[in-house]
Each structure stands twice: as structure tokens, then as C-alpha cells.
Amino acid sequence: MQCMLIQQFEQLLVNEFISWVGDNVISGSRLQFKLSSPESRKVIYDFFIEKCSEEICISDVHITYIAYKEKNIIPLLHSESGDRGFNQDYLAFLRDELQKKDYFKVSPIILFLHDTILDTITNSADDLTKNERVWSIPYFNKIMGAFCTESLNQNFYNILLEYQTDNMLEDNSSILSYKNLYECVYSGNFDLSKLGLFRDPTVELWENKKQIRNRIDDNKTIHSLVKYQVDNFPGQLEDKLGGLFSSQFIKKHFDAESIDGWESLEFDLIKQDMDGNKKPNIEFITIETKSDVKIRKIDEGKTAGAKRRKHVVLEVPENLKKFDISIIFKGANIRDNEIGRDDVDCCIQDIIINNNGINRKITSTISIDKGVSFFSINTFKRDKTSDKFIFNFIVVSNKSFYIDGFINNFIISPGNKIKLLTNDTTLIINPDLENSVCFLDENIKKADIDQYGCIKFNKLIENNSDAEFIIKSGLDEITFIVEDFKADRNVVMPLIFDKDKERKLLDDNYYGIYDLQSKKILIDNRTVEPEEQDLKLLDYEKLFLNESIIGVYGCKKEQLSSLQASDENLFLGYKELYDYLSKRNTVLSLVSWGEELRCIVSKLVKDYIHFIENIPYGIILSEAQKNVIKIGVIEDENEFLISPLHPLNLAYFLELTNQVALDNEKSQDETSSFYSMPSITFKRLNIRGMIPFVFNNNNGFAYVTPLENNCSWLKALPHSISEYDYVPKLVKDKINEFEIAFGELFKEDGTLIINAINQNHSREFFKGVVKYFKQHIELPDVLSIHINFYDDKFIYNTFDVFSELNELEPLCSLLDLKSKKEKDSVYSLTDMLRSNITYNKYENSIENASYNYAHLSFFNNDNKIS
User: Fold this and answer.
1) CB-CB contact of 726 with 605 (8 Å)
2) Model pTM?
3) Chain-centre distance of CA 776, in angstroms?
4) Taking a C-beta distance cutoff of 8 angstroms, is the pair 589, 494 a contact?
5) What values do phi and psi take at 376, rounded to 5?
6) How far is the C-alpha of 580 from the C-alpha of 598, rounded, in Å?
């Protein structure tokens, strides 16, 4: 439906201003609207002049004004060019002159439409964009909200208005930014390209508000990224946009001769190409050789792009001078013209592509004539970004260098150098001479493996963010680079829930190694430094294996051998499981549940069930029977933990991985449905529902809940104190609802009073209050909150912790700020919270359970279950 504009946007501004002034502004007031664009100021001023019906003369200058509701409104235009309007000095003169009684019986209301920093104007007139005055964003947002016509989707318009308002607040822009949206409403044509987005007719028909907002936000993110690249790198778009779009799409829509046409693209077309570009046509399988060459490869990182950058060490026998290696893919055919190479050492004699059969092979004949050589092979000429791989190779004689010294912490850098990815400042270069140490510094930057077994380079990097040194072996040398490095701290546990490892899981030969001494995990030839909460669980799992125990009960460690008195088969089953894990130097959280492990666990679970079934009902358990019941449990005064070694845990993950194996067989080359599930579903795959509660003499009944960082571990907590995930949202929503319903109470410096009863450490309650303030971070005025805490005793709670924090990272963690944008606002959010939140603490009174008056109360029922 097309329709004519009822009035231009600037005309709407003028009409709303006059109406607002008539009802809200007293005579003699001075108002200002600062606008940098001279053209926009003139357009607004012209609509004011149309409304003027009266005139006065000051020093031969005619000043027109509007007479409305017994008030006189004088619009004054700032212009330094002399083309209509007045310069800033004359505006200051008029401001003072018009206050004289010679012209009006009652002082007029003066409006300055200006772009000046002159104090006599800016400090003496009220800003129309502040304090919800007529041209402020909050005030005009309400006006814009009433413009949705019957022909428009109400939900779509409201979300689009919300999006536009959020952007205006973020950019600190004026209400003129509403102009394009206003014109879209009355033209009946929502061309989102006028709002800095890709055109998107599809979203106009949607009803779900959350989906609409997510779609618009995605649109904005992609549009901003593309615009930045087009504006700053117009001649490099195939490279700069290659991560988003296919080469064909870039050539078609971002051609140098018609580059401006990209802004008219539809978002569906954009998404279609992006989605297609993400899904690869080829999938890397492995690198293999038929010779005695040892292949050791790692990915550059964990992102999709980093996983396509492979770094490979080829350890060759001393006398081998020529060999073949094959890079194997599955999927679409690979053509000769899609293969690139970088061969400074002239190693590659020939490359042959074989597309016959299931797999695609790129076979290279490699010839070497020295101890160390570098080369690379890539598929960069393929159309899709997700098909563009690079394989960086270093060929090393297995007699010349000690590869194990750096194999888990390296990538091959441009210039044929090895970059070390580690925070350690020690490197083993010859284990036979490990006690002979070379200390590198600014003067000593080379070490020979025939003289030293270990190098220390801490002095070398003391004053340099990056440094280089050389390791020499005979006539051969390798140059190493050391840079500031932030260790990877992310590992998914249990390992079978790592979606990125789908092709490697259910394989007994794929697992992570946990080094108890260094507190590090080795997986995928990469060293990972786990978080503190992960280390505690890994240490427990190692304790079970290293000391051959089946449980920890206070100071007592129950030995595995004690199971022999209970059930010989069960003892042998656990011994076989422990041997399996110890042989691989791993733990149950870091294995991939291959067929061998599943067979061991299957037999163990059957033996356990058989033992339980043979315990008669109604008897008092013997010590031998109690030992079996408590397998895999860690219990002391402070906690009750159920480990992955608990029989019920073993049975659950056995059944789960068996089903995944069956699904893999059915899906064949397709992605298993197991790894297509949302991440939140993975967290629910645990035995919590099978052990609803436990009971002990210290805490009574306690509910069982999985640990956030590893759901194969469970803990029992009294009164289910951890099950409050819903509280933050509840707190935020209730404050919002109360403010909307009773907002008038707080307009004149009112304070919302909240009683927080039995909130203990108040962690979830704090998160809810923070969520409320986060949504108001850009607004000038925000509600003040006073909290009365009532607990059985005074508790040092999360609000106390927050009041004492000043460092960036702890604040971001406590306030749950994750994105870069959120972290950039940490100090403004902190100031807002500390300025607008006050609190008192009270002890609950048994004799007189009374509380102070409050607008809202949040009560935690801490009565024990009986």
C-alpha cells in the first residue's frame, strides 16, 4: 500500500515542538537545538517561519514569531555564512535584547537552532534533546511509536523502531535519524537500505519479536562489516570479503565498475551465499605416506579458519632423499588449477591429483638435499572460503633436531621460521645433554645441540615483545620466534561433547593427556592450560588412577583392592578400566569412548548390575556391600561429588556413546544428529535425574546437580542452592514490570525499595539487578534502588565483593560482560551501579519476623526438607 506523506518529518518536529511548548514551557524560557548540518537547520527553520504570523523590528532587523496559547515563540537560526539567520555574536545580542519589556509584555520563548560552542548560548538555554524534552530520543520515540498504520506489521515496526532508537542512543545522534523510518512508514515501502541495512522484505512478514530483532541485528552486523571493507579497501575486496562470501559472489556484486550497487542487495541473497560459503565442498581427512616418514601435524587454532591452516613436521630417515606424501580430502573433485604452492627450497618435484574413488588425493613428490626444508601447498584458488586450506611443511632429518621439544607448541611462520606458542622460557633441544644449559640474551642468540641440551630464553624476551634465536645441528639451522602468547584455556569436558572433534570421537586412539605435574592437557598436538575449576576435577580423576582408589570419604581413601572382598569380577572390571586409562596417561573426561573402552565398560556395568541384584531387600549392608555402593564418590564436610567413574555414570555414557555409534553408521557421510543438537542440550545429558537426591547426617537431604564445566561430574548441595538459574531474569523482569506500572512514583528522585530475604551470598539476585541496569546503560536517567538484606547472620555477599573490585577482568567476570562491546562499557556500568544502588543488612529475628516497607520483596524459602 502506497500513500503520501501527511507532513514532512521536519514539519512534524515543528508541530510537536509548538504543541509541547504551549503545554509545558513558561514564558521567558530559552531553548536550544544544536545541529551540525546547516541545510537541516534551514529546513526546520523554514517550517517555523511558515507558522509565524507576527513580527517585530530590532535595529531594522525584522524578527518573526509565533503567537500560541498566549505565548510568543521566536525561532532564531544560526548561520555564519550570512545566508539568512544570524552569526553567534548577533544571536547573543538578540537573546539579551528580546528580554526587554520594549517588545513584549511577557518575555518570549526563544529557540536557538544553532551549531555554536559559544557559552552565552549553550549555557543559557535548555537543551531540547535532554531530560525527555520534546526533541529528546525517549520523548520522540513515543511519538514514533504511534505511527504504525493498519497496513504495517505492528511487531515488525515496533522492533524496527526499537532497533533504530538503540542505534541512536549508542551513536549519540539526533532525532533527525528517525526521518528515514518515518518516511518508510508513510510511503508504505520499508526499504531497509535507507536505514543502513540490506533490503529484507522477508522479515516484514514475521511475527516473533525476538526473531525479528535477531534478524535485524544480523543484518546490521554484516552490513557494517561490508561497508567498512568497501569504504577502506575497495581494491582488495576479494581478499577482505573472502571470509564472508564466495569468490563468484564478490566478483558479481562488488565489481569495481558497479561497486555502489551492493547496498541494494537483499539480505536473503546475502545469507544464502554466506551459508553456502560456510558449508565446505571438501573436507580434510588426513595426510599419509608410504615411506618411513613420520608425519606430525597440528591446526593453527580452534576457529574454522585456523583449522584450515595446517602445520606439518615431516621427520625423514637420514638417508631418504625422495618420497611421496598425499593430502586426502573427501567431497567434490579438486582441479589442477585450484592448487597453489610456495616452494622456496625447491622440494616439490610434482603434484598429481586423483579424484577416483571415495576420496580426493593431492599427491606430491618431495625431493630434499639438506637437513631442513620448507614448502607449502594450498587450495586457495577454490571458490568457497571453507574450501581454502593451506598446509605448511617443514622437512627435518630425524637425526638432526629434537622435534619433541616443540611439537606441541608451534606453527610455521612466514619466512620459514618456527613460532613457539608457549609461555615457558625453556626449550629442550637435546635430552641427552639436558643438564647442559645455554642462557640466551641480547648477545647470545644461537645454541648448538652438540653442546647444549636445554636453552633458557627468559632474558632474551625481557625487553622484547618478540625475539628470535637459532638452534644449530651440524650445518643445519632452525630459526625460532618467541612472542607474547596467551595460552588456550578452553577444553570441552567430557571430550565426547566437543562438536568440533566429531570425526575423531569414538576412536580409542584419540584422547587428551593430562600431566599432573605441569597441570596441562595435551590434545591434538596442542598444549591447553585448563581453568582452575577444571584442574580440581582432573586432579581428582588422576588421584583415582595413580593411587588405585575407588572413593574418597573424608581422610580415608578406599583402595581398589578392597573390591576383591566384595566381587572379584567387579574388581577386575575396574582394574581393566584403570589400566586402559593409565596406559594412555589420560582420564575418563578426556577419552573419546572408542570400541575398546565401550567393551570394557559394558562388561563392568553388567557385573555391577549383577552384584546389586543379588543384594537382598531389607538387610543392613555389609562393609563390602557399602564399598560397592560408594564407588566413584568423593565426600567430606564441605562437598559431596559423584565422579565419572561412578557405575551409573559409566552406564549412562556407555548407552549414549553406543547410540551415537549407531547413528554414525546410519548417517554415514552426513553429520551425526548427535552433534547437530544445541549446546544447551549437551549440558542436560547426564545422570542427574537418576540420582534425584542423596542424604547424609551432616546436611540431610541434598539435591544432585551437574557441574557447569563438566556435566559428567555431579555435586550434591543442601536445599538445591545451585538451582537458581531463573532468578536473575525473574529479578530483572519484576523490577521492569513495577517500574512500568508505577513509574510516576519515581519521576521526582524516587527510590525503589527492595527487601532481599534469605538470599545468602545473593549471587543470582545480584546478576538480576545488574541485568536491569545493563538495559539502561545508555539512558541519562535511571532508577535508584535501595536493598534491605535479611539473613540469619550478616553475610559478606556479592554486592560487597563488587563494591571492592576495581580491576577490569574481575569486574567483567562478576558483571558477566563477555563481548568486546560489553567490556568497553564496564566502567560506565560500574559507575551506574555504584551511584544508584545502596543497601543495608539486617539479621532475621526469631521473636519478631518483621521487615521494613518495600515496593518489592524477593524471598528464598530456606526451610529444610523433612
Assistant:
1) no
2) 0.53
3) 21
4) yes
5) -145, 150
6) 11
CA 846 to chain centre: 46
What is the C-alpha to C-alpha distance for residues 478 and 559, in angstroms, rounded to an integer?
50
Query: How many CB atoms lie under 10 A from the CB of residue 175?
Result: 24
Residue type, 69: K
Instruction: Tell me if the bond preceding 494 is cis, omega within 30° of 0.
Output: yes
Would you say residue 451 has pLDDT above 60? Answer: yes
CA 190 – CA 196 distance, rounded (Å): 12
Q: What are residue 72's DSSP bridge partners?
A: 67
- C-alpha distances (whole Å) from 838 to each of 117, 129, 768, 800, 860 are 38, 30, 15, 11, 21
Q: Which of 359, 250, 685 is nearest to 499 (CA)?
A: 685
Cα 682 to Cα 496, 674, 691, distances in angstroms? 10, 9, 18
Q: Furthest-apart CA pair in the chain: how many Å?
A: 115
Confidence of residue 488 (pLDDT cuts 50, 70, 90): low
DSSP characters for 802-818?
HHH--SHHHHHHHTT--
- Say how far apart CA 569 and CA 571 lie, in whole Å: 5
Q: Give me the mean pLDDT over the 138-158 stretch.
A: 82
Cα 449 to Cα 316, 441, 478, 773, distances in angstroms: 19, 17, 11, 60
Sign of CA dihedral 560, 564, 567, 569: positive
Residue 865 C-alpha cell reads as 526438607
- Round to whole Å and give the CA distance between 613 and 239: 66
pLDDT above 90 for 16: yes
Strand partners, 420: 410, 482
Q: What is the C-alpha separation between 456 and 435, in angstroms, rounded?
A: 12
C-alpha cell at 513: 593427556
φ/ψ (deg, to 5) at 111: -115, 120
Q: Which whole-number Å values give the CA distances from 601 to 253, 463, 611, 612, in the listed order?
A: 57, 54, 15, 16
Query: DSSP readout, 414-453?
Result: TTTEEEE--S--EEES-GGGTT-EEE--SS--EEETTT-S
Exposure string over 264-279, b if 16+ CB within 10 A, otherwise e: ebebeebbebbeebee
What number of residues does the chain have?
866
Beta strands in 670-809 (DSSP E): 693-696, 700-707, 710-718, 751-757, 784-791
How would DSSP label each residue in 497-518?
A: G-GGGTTTSS-TT-B-EEETTT
Q: Dump pLDDT digits (tens) for 166-188.
A: 888 888 888 899 998 888 887 77
Query: For the chain, first and last CA: distance in Å?
Result: 66
Burial (CB count <10 Å: 0-12, 13-18, 19+), residue 132:
middle
Three-state DSSP state, 415: coil
Place of cell 575398546: 596
Adjacency order of strands within the sheet including 410-413: 410-413, 417-420, 476-483, 466-473, 446-448
pLDDT confidence band for 1 (50 / 70 / 90) = very low
CB atoms within 10 A of CB 170: 11
Strand bridging mode 454-456 / 437-439: parallel
Q: Where are the beta strands (DSSP E) in 125-233?
A: 126-127
pLDDT of 464 higher than 50: yes
CA atoms of 344 and 342, how far apart (whole Å): 6
Neighbours of 853 (CB within 10 A): 7
Grid cell in block for residue 839: 543497601
Instruction: Flag the least confident range among 515-524, 604-613, 620-629, 632-641.
Output: 632-641
Confidence band for 787, pLDDT divided at 50, 70 and 90: very high
* Pairwise CA distance, residues 793 & 18, whole Å: 59
Tens digit of pLDDT for each residue in 634-673?
987 677 889 999 999 999 999 999 998 888 777 665 556 7
